[in-house]
Amino acid sequence: MTAYIGVTAAYWALMLSDGALRMLVLLHFHTLGFSPVQLAYLFLLYEFAGMVTNLFAGWIAARVGMAFTLYVGLGLQVAALLALAALDQDWALGLSVAYVMVVQGVSGVAKDLAKMSSKSAVKILAPSRDGGLFRWVAALTGSKNAVKGVGFLLGAALLALAGFQPTVLAMAAGLLIILVLVLLAMPDSLPGGRKDVMMRDIYSRSSNINWLSAARVFLFGARDVWFVVGIPIYFYAVLSDGSEAGNRAAFFAIGSFMAVWIILYGAVQAAAPRLLGAAKRPESELVRQARSWAWVLSAIPAVLTVAVLTLPSQQPVLTGVLIVGLLVFGAVFALNSSLHSYLILAFSKSERVTLDVGFYYMANAGGRLLGTALSGLAYQLGGLTLMFAAASVMVALSALAASRLSPEPAPAPESKP
Fold first, then answer.
1. What pLDDT is attached to residue 249?
2. Are 29 and 376 a contacting pair, CB within 8 Å?
3. Nearest to 276 by CA among 405, 141, 135
4. H-helix or E-strand spanning residue 87
5. pLDDT tens column, 239-293
6. How far apart are CA 42 and CA 406, in angstroms?
7. Between the CA of residue 221 and those of 193, 305, 369, what are the distances in Å?
8. What gap in Å lies between CA 78 and CA 14, rounded to an integer?
9. Helix or strand or coil: residue 99?
10. Domain range annotation of the chain
11. The pLDDT of residue 189 is above 50
């Protein structure tokens, strides 16, 4: 239990800074005049770095141990924050974009090292009976997203109150303190590395893991196609009058909505085992639920697309419909995501859990990369209509991939010392 608490605390700290940093970068550079496509560029290397990190981090963790990759993730995030604080606003636009993309890339490596290590640790530490694995992974993932939601609000609020550079430096100092505390307090419960793990072992030979990874690509692409750029910029256009006071009010409102969305998402994820009755359901039933909930989710952005087409001249009504619809999307999305997070661990065998989890989260990062690239492009070319239509198509593709899943015999539980 002590190791689980240590892993969770480290993961929380990094996710708090990750959420705050996303809002800081998005809102700060939007006020500097970046277009939706340029804003999307700022996050592309972040997501691409996450793909590469997850592909190889599982192999690295299998060789050197999960704790080491967790510590490296925290350290890299501190370095990324310090580098971002050194940004000079007098630099040319192209140089600023390139610099922030590189810094965001380092941050992406940091986040996914920590995520892969934390999620893999749950497979080793969780009790194997009475739905223990689902409960523990749901608690870690749900609480992480609640913390990240607080980070969205914190980042927007601190940007409005203290400015960009002081906020980034304060975040770096806080995360450094957490890293030192975790280094001093983490017990030796996590397994060390195995030198016999080969590079070729990265790729999974399980069809279930491959289809689940494909479903994950489109699931997270469907979220980020509206979440990363489009909706924050739409709300900014609706809420801000261009004045300094108007900008501050818009920052708080946007940060609050994004925080509420992420916190709701995290709360539903944490409650997913109870909501789905997971303790009393066999794995085959949870696989069927992963298919059916994906189809439910695909209907929500389709409805929002219709709303945008039919309510273009009634902006307050449309904005209210979008807020409610996206919150419902968040709740149903959380059930889908929680089922995926459980199934990847259920399908993985303990001796290669970091490899399978790394491969799966590589697909997760690929979905975020796809959604991020399309977010600025779809909003700039087709506005809300194209953005939500793309989200609906991607969720449908996720449902088709999930339909190929089949139950596998669970690996025999390992005894814990």
1. 87
2. no
3. 135
4. none
5. 888 788 888 888 888 888 988 998 898 889 888 888 888 767 777 888 889 989 9
6. 38
7. 33, 17, 7
8. 9
9. helix
10. 2-186+200-402
11. yes
What one-character DSSP code corresponds to residue 413?
P
Quick one: which H or E segment has residue 417? Answer: none
Whole-Å CA distances, 24 to 151, 166, 222, 270: 10, 11, 23, 27
Element (H, E) at 222: helix 207-227
Token look-up 């793909």 returns 51
Query: Given this model, what pLDDT does residue 284 score?
Result: 83
Structure tokens at 284: 């085959």
How many other CB atoms are found less than 10 A from the CB of residue 163?
Answer: 12
CATH 3.40.50.300, domain 2-186+200-402, yes or no: no
The label of the residue with tokens 């080793």 reads 124
CA–CA dist 190, 116 (Å, integer): 13
Q: What is the residue whose two structure tokens read 């439910």?
A: 296
- Digit-coded pLDDT (tens) for 31-43: 878 888 788 877 8
pTM of the model: 0.73
